[in-house]
Structures are given as structure tokens and as C-alpha cells.
Design goal:
By secondary structure, the chain is of the alpha/beta class. It has a seven-stranded parallel β-sheet, sandwiched between helices. Helix 1 packs across helix 8, helix 3 packs parallel to helix 4 and helix 4 packs parallel to helix 5. It is globular and about 50 Å long. The mean pLDDT is about 95.
Length: about 260
């Protein structure tokens, strides 16, 4: 009889993490590597730190520099991943994203299009290619989308981001409906307030920063380590019967 902890191991698995160069994406890559997975790290920026973290765990780390705003590059990207991993990956973490802030009445067309394209459209098309590779080789797959607590709330001054993250939650449910019969699980993580580059402007505003922390039952901002258990769980066999769900990791924000 196997130990329950064995169900959380990712030995011999290969995981794609987009936006893996820093912040939460780097944290996801590190966590999956610690659980035993080899990592395909994708980012438009430097991934040296991520590669060091992964290789320190004795795992392979392939780094691919790619601009995920360029949809024409998606198919070649997955061709490259197929060659690097000798067949294809088992796990896809759709983490890459951006945020633009402005009042609703002043929000521009480019800021709308850029965020929707990267935060929502890229997730759909990358997941489609990943799922196709899994089906082609008859392999189980895990898709983990990164939503936000704004998949449950509206927020302010970030209309395209809120729309994209709400879309991620619904898209994740649709993926589960269509892909479960093909042995592919699709779930999402909705981080709350985490100390990242995206939240730097908020944390620099002393009054708003205090108001946020005062509302979080845990009394602090999240760190990448707070997401490690959730990402490994959703990537592992331990969550094989969890499908179409968005898990909030927010220190209790949504419960307040």
C-alpha cells in the first residue's frame, strides 16, 4: 500500500510554467521541482534565478525566451517543448500575465487588448496546444490556470484584468467539462494580495496598504511560499478527482 504522501510526488513529470522568471511564477517552478518535476520555464525576461532554484533540486530546467503576446509563436513553442521533453509535458501552469491601472472612464483600448490577450487569450490557446499533445500521446495532463480573487470580486481601476481573471474562472470550468473524459484536469488558483511587482504600486501607498492588511484575516501579504502546497496538490495525482475548481489562496480575504 502506498503512502498518501506518495500521491503528491511529481517524479518523472515535466511541467511548463509561463512567466517563470520571477515572483509567483518562479515560486511555482521551484515548488514543482521540489516535488520532483523537471521544468520548462518560459518568460520574456531573465530566468537565471529560476534555473538555479530548479537545478538546486537536482531537476532539469529548460528555459525558453518567448513573447506570449505573439500568438503566431505558440505552435512553434509547443513543437520545441515536445522535442526538449522527448514527447511533451504533463503539467501546464498558465501564470504569465500583466496588469494595467486606470479609471474605468479613462481606460484605453490598448490597455484593454494587451491584458486580455496575455491574461486570457494566451491561456486558451496554450492550453489547447498542451491538451492536444496530451491526447496525441494518450497521457494524463494537468492544467493549472492562475486566476485572482478578482474572479470573485470586481476591484477598481483594473477593468481588463478583472475581466480576464473572471474569464479564467469560467474557462477553467469549461476546460474541465470538455477535457475530463480525456484524463486532463483543469483547475485554477486565485491568489489574494501577494507581495509582487504587480502590487508594488499598492504597497507603496501607505494608507491603502494598511487598509488591505487590516482586512486580511491572516494580517499580512502573501509570499510565493504560501502557494507552494496548492500548486503541487493541483499538479499531483492527489487531486485527480478535483476538476474545474478555482482555489482561493488569500489569507481569508474572501471570507471576510
Amino acid at each position: 500500500m502506498s503512502n498518501i504522501l506518495d500521491q503528491f510526488k511529481l517524479t518523472n513529470k515535466k511541467a511548463i510554467v509561463t512567466g517563470a522568471g520571477k515572483g509567483l511564477g518562479q515560486g511555482y517552478a521551484k515548488a514543482l521541482a521540489e516535488a520532483g518535476a523537471d521544468i520548462v520555464a518560459i518568460d520574456i525576461g531573465d530566468m537565471t534565478g529560476t534555473q538555479k532554484h530548479v537545478e538546486a533540486q537536482g531537476r532539469q530546467c529548460w528555459t525558453i525566451t518567448a513573447n506570449l503576446m505573439d500568438r503566431q509563436g505558440y505552435a512553434p513553442l509547443f513543437d520545441q517543448i515536445k522535442k526538449l521533453t522527448a514527447g511533451g509535458a504533463d503539467i501546464l501552469v498558465n501564470n504569465a500575465g500583466m496588469i494595467r491601472r486606470e479609471e474605468f472612464l479613462k481606460f484605453g483600448e490598448k490597455d484593454w487588448d494587451d491584458v486580455i490577450n496575455l491574461n486570457l487569450s494566451a491561456v486558451f490557446f496554450l492550453s489547447q496546444l498542451f491538451a492536444a499533445q496530451c491526447v496525441e500521446r494518450g497521457a494524463k495532463g494537468k492544467i493549472i490556470n492562475i486566476a485572482s480573487m478578482l474572479a470573485f470580486q470586481g476591484g477598481i481601476r483594473i477593468p481588463s484584468y478583472a475581466a480576464a481573471k473572471g474569464g479564467i474562472r469560467s474557462l477553467t470550468m469549461l476546460m474541465a467539462n470538455e477535457l475530463a473524459s480525456k484524463n486532463i484536469c483543469a483547475n485554477a488558483i486565485a491568489p489574494g494580495y501577494f507581495a509582487t511587482d504587480n502590487t508594488a504600486p499598492i504597497r507603496a501607498d501607505a494608507a491603502r496598504e494598511k487598509a488591505i492588511v487590516d482586512r486580511i484575516p491572516a494580517g499580512r501579504w502573501g509570499t510565493p511560499d504560501d502557494l507552494m502546497g496548492t500548486i503541487v496538490y493541483l499538479a499531483s495525482p492527489a487531486s485527480d478527482y478535483v476538476n474545474g475548481y478555482t482555489i482561493a489562496v488569500d489569507g481569508g480575504w474572501l471570507a471576510r
